[in-house]
Fold:
Amino acid sequence: MLNRRTSKLVTSIFVSVLLLSGCGLFKKDQAIKEIDPPQDVSYLKDGESLQQSKENTAQASNEAQATETVKRELYLIDQNGFVVPQTLSLPKTDAVAKQALEYLVEGGPVTEMLPNGFRAVLPADTRILGVKLEKDGTIIVDFSPEFARYKREDEKKILEAITWTLTQFGNIKKVKIRINGYDQTVMPVNGTPIQDGVSREDGINIDTSGVVDITNTHPIIVYFVAQQGEQTYYVPVTRRIPNKQQNDIAAAVNELIKGPTYGSGLVSDFQPDAQLVGEPTYEDGKVTLNFNDAIYGSNKQHVISEHVLNALVLSLTEQKGVESVAITVNGKADLVREDGKALSEPVTRPENVNTGSF
Structure:
């Protein structure tokens, strides 16, 4: 485990981060259908045939649609080998699952959009032959044979990236894989089991360091900070905690304070002597955390680091039923953000993570 003092990221070298309030990370795409929509009326220009008019109208419609974009989370691999969400603007389409996968292909349309230090996860020339969504929320993805041309050490990263990219859509819960029409019970290169499908419950960037008996543990997700040049971003990590530890909220906070594993390339802005004063409380989707004054990340009284705040909100809202996080210090809610604004209201998860504005 990294010495926690050396793992701290001095807040002043970071660009300030503002969490955007949102209604949740996973929005279900909805298609709005009109009954008997009004017909468009068009007029021919001088010398223009009816066929030319139709073609010009169709071209203009396609160009207009091509300019419409929507934000999607693509899980890519960073310089440290972690699978990380990056929010990018993709052309609007009805085939959202197929498109998201196509943007994971090396040398594909994502190439010009990749943030510095990141790479796509699927082998070059991989084609998405089809996607099929079952009623139980399982999506079956059929890849071309090129899918199997990845390095052995990338196998779990590829599986995690596919799973977490697709399950950002609210109606997708689990992922199964086919290659050229054939169901796969294991991944093709290193044999990672996938027969019943893979979900977010299988974890991401799994860290089992220090765990002696994994059978008596269960996973939680916590977010640490990484930096590439001037860009900072948040990395989800799966930690295993003992089953006897009943309060997953307190466990996640303690893992954040413990900090990332030594040599991982990740950092934490938590003070080593920060701790909860009493058990977290939960009511109607809101978690309230009461810390000692070591939660403050600077010499300025009542100022909390944006990275501490963001890591807490991202980590805790991964847990079922948690929608917002409120923070007090020794029972008082008089904290201040780095920008000088009072932290007077509970903070919700941003609709998208790592948007480039961090």
Q: What stands out?
A: The helical segments are 50-67, 96-102, 155-166, 248-258, 306-316.
